[in-house]
Structure to design on (808 residues):
């Protein structure tokens, strides 16, 4: 009798928890692919397409599905690659030789004397950071430029240059003290 | 009396246990460096020095750089505004002496970065033309808004070192400030400019404080001065007699002059992490700032000069000077007879928080309280951290400097932030006590900059993402719109093509006709079109006619086929007259076995033929 009671109790418990889990699975269902979202947040969002995907989000989705290599993000450089590898729990892969360091922030600058107003760069810009219209001078909104360089090759008169941000009081940083002098523990 | 007895006891213990001095005040940590303040107090205050050139950076404060409002070659008078405040947080710049604007160009700033930024350069003349009452004071400001406008116009910023525009840190309504603290602590070694200012201009300081106390309806006005300035304390006490300003002696400890520390010491309130002092009803004003306010209030003079300590171990005659803003450091230092020769970088600020300037001809700005000429000593190489914990003992804001150091060194900036890196006041106590000479505070400054950059980057990334998504959405929408338009156009063209013969023919022979006739023609055409359309849709009529003709044709064929089948049946019947079970309606009925073999075969053949013909006919009618 006691054994039967025990079995019944546990069956009952199993039923209750089973229902509970089943309900939770429906109630707290995660929409979309959370892994792709997490990876997307780690990507630099330059939307440059250097990874071979049409933007950061598509690359993140491909990574989440396991269809892409982790070492394709060139603007992110090695730190991004390591972060992605950690998220996906795969072995980090070495970057291409020139892309080990994350690129310093560059912005595109249009030489407005040369610009012919062909709107090709406007079409190429993934973040709408270039303003202008047909046969009118174009210019880059420096604040919005991600430095993806997509506008550089399409310019028929080569009037777009990538330039480094000028150091100023607003972006100056205290330098890191030299660790080299310290004895390593 | 009780306090002084306590002090006496502590002073007795101090030689045996130096940290006993920490019992004298209420905040955590703190250090007791060698003060060397007497160096610069031996000489009287110097005044009236006019350098060959005055270099006035457009950015001498936190916030946006001022905008020049003079041109090269222009003659300016003393107190004339030469650069106006930018929008928002900013402060204007005024000419400290009459003279000619010789340049507006990039000059190296007295800033740790050593960057060059735009400066206005004035060559002073001997005339000393002055704009009297440059701020246009008729009477003292009656309300807070007027007062804040006056502070902005006078270019007054926090002169204790932060350089925060003073108008911006004051509330808009009375009653928000409970405690107004006059900061006369001046805790950094070597610096004596506030000490001397209090000794010589105590009434001016107190007048500004009282004016503000009335304007903002402040309950409690306290002045905190460290015990190592007895003359300043005496002068301030005298100036405060019969007023509601209390002068409090506070223990001599570094960093007593820090906003958080002095607030805690004088009113017993701690400024919570991430909040400003105004959030707990405290406003702190440096004595130099208050004096500048008095000058603006009473004389209408903007901020063009300040007390500067010129001191250091490398000077024979250190002094304090009421220096014009824009005076180059090296000219002032030459006055103090440097020994040895000045071939090392000067420090701006004290030895604890000051920094070496990139070039010794940088100018005095609104936040320059001290120019320090300390010949470089053989600096000790940083060694490994031995985890002694001295830094945590000394930290006046109760942080864990050692942990912060490990994380900052390992570039784990998120962890430094979790350890409240941003509460660090960069006082340098930890570096001061470190037996391994690790430049701890530099690590924190760097880590702070990194964290800020990471946050900034994250914000930019988010914006880039939004813009990218918005662009994708727009392109998609455009594409759909284009497709929809194309489909609509196609449909329209098709429809037009159908209607074309009826509606457009009259228009074709129209050209020779006059406008009126054309109109008539068009109307007629419309009428005919309407007629055509009226009984039935032209398309549908046409369709139905073709449909019906088709069905007619197929009906004829059917009939033919049926006739052929009937003929066949008749033939079959004829050939088998004896057949008892006559096939009544179907030609598919096979002849019965009673008939002769010959006849049977014939009939069967005929029937098959008929069947085939019927099938053929049927197939043709129903393709």
């Amino acid at each position: 009798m006691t054994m039967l009671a025990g079995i019944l109790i546990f069956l009952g418990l199993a039923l209750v928890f089973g229902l509970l889990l089943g309900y939770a699975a429906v109630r707290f269902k995660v929409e979309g692919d959370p892994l792709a979202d997490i990876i997307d947040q780690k990507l630099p969002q330059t939307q440059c397409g250097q990874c071979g995907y049409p933007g950061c989000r598509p690359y993140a989705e491909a990574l989440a599905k396991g269809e892409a290599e982790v070492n394709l993000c060139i603007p992110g450089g090695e730190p991004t690659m390591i972060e992605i590898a950690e998220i996906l729990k795969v072995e980090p892969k070495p970057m291409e030789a020139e892309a080990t360091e994350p690129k310093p922030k560059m912005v595109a600058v249009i030489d407005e004397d040369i610009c012919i107003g062909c709107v090709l760069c406007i079409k190429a810009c993934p973040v709408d950071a270039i303003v202008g219209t047909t046969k009118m001078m174009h210019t880059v909104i420096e604040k919005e430029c991600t430095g993806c360089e997509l506008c550089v090759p399409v310019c028929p008169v080569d009037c777009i240059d990538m330039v480094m941000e000028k150091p100023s009081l607003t972006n100056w940083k205290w330098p890191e003290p030299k660790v080299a002098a310290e004895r390593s523990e | 009396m009780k306090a002084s007895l306590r002090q006496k006891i502590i002073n007795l213990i101090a030689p045996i246990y130096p940290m006993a001095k920490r019992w004298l005040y209420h905040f955590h940590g703190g250090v007791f460096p060698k003060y060397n303040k007497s160096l610069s107090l031996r000489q009287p205050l110097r005044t009236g020095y006019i350098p060959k050139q005055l270099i006035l950076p457009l950015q001498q404060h936190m916030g946006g750089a001022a905008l020049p409002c003079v041109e090269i070659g222009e003659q300016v008078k003393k107190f004339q505004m030469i650069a106006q405040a930018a929008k928002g947080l900013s402060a204007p710049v005024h000419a400290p002496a009459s003279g000619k604007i010789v340049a507006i160009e990039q000059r190296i700033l007295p800033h740790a970065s050593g960057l060059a930024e735009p400066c206005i350069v004035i060559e002073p003349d001997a005339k000393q033309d002055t704009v009297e009452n440059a701020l246009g004071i008729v009477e003292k400001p009656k309300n807070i808004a007027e007062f804040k406008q006056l502070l902005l116009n006078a270019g007054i910023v926090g002169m204790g070192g932060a350089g925060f525009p003073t108008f911006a840190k004051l509330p808009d309504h009375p009653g928000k400030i409970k405690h107004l603290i006059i900061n006369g602590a001046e805790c950094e070694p070597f610096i004596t400019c506030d000490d001397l200012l209090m000794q010589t201009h105590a009434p001016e300081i107190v007048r500004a404080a009282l004016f503000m106390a009335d304007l903002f309806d402040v309950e409690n006005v306290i002045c905190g001065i460290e015990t190592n300035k007895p003359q300043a304390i005496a002068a301030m006490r005298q100036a405060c007699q019969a007023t509601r300003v209390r002068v409090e002696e506070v223990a001599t400890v570094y960093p007593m002059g820090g906003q958080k520390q002095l607030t805690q010491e004088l009113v017993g309130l701690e400024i919570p992490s991430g909040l400003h002092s105004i959030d707990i009803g405290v406003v702190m004003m440096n004595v130099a700032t208050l004096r500048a306010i008095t000058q603006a209030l009473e004389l209408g003079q903007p901020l063009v000069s300040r007390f500067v300590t010129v001191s250091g171990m490398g000077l024979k005659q250190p002094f304090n000077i009421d220096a014009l803003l824009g005076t180059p450091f090296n000219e002032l230092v030459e006055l103090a007879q440097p020994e040895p020769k000045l071939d090392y970088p000067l420090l701006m600020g004290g030895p604890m928080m000051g920094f070496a300037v990139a070039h010794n001809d940088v100018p005095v700005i609104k936040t320059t309280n001290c120019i320090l000429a300390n010949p470089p000593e053989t600096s000790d190489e940083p060694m490994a951290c031995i985890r002694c914990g001295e830094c945590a003992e000394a930290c006046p804001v109760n942080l864990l400097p050692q942990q912060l150091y490990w994380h900052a060194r390992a570039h784990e900036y998120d962890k430094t932030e979790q350890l409240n890196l941003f509460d660090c006041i960069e006082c340098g106590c930890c570096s001061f006590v470190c037996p391994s000479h690790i430049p701890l505070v530099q690590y924190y400054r760097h880590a702070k900059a990194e964290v800020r950059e990471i946050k900034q980057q994250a914000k930019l990334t988010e914006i880039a993402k939004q813009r990218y998504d918005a662009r994708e959405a727009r392109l998609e929408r455009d594409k759909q719109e284009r497709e929809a338009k194309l489909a609509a156009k196609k449909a329209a063209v098709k429809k037009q093509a159908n209607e074309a013969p009826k509606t457009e023919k009259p228009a074709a022979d129209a050209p020779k006709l006059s406008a009126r006739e054309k109109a008539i023609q068009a109307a007629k055409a419309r009428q005919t079109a309407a007629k055509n359309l009226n009984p039935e849709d032209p398309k549908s009529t046409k369709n139905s006619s073709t449909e019906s003709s088709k069905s007619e044709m197929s009906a004829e064929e059917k009939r033919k086929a049926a006739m052929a089948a009937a003929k066949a049946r008749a033939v079959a019947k004829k050939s088998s007259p004896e057949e008892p079970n006559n096939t009544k309606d179907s030609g598919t009925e096979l002849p019965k076995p009673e008939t002769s073999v010959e006849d049977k075969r014939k009939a069967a053949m005929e029937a098959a033929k008929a069947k085939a013909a019927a099938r053929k006919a049927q197939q043709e009618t129903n393709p």
Q: What stands out?
A: Confidence is low (pLDDT under 50) at residues 505-510, 535-552, 577-595 of chain B. The longest strand of chain B covers residues 99-108. Residues 440-508 of chain B form the longest helix (69 residues).
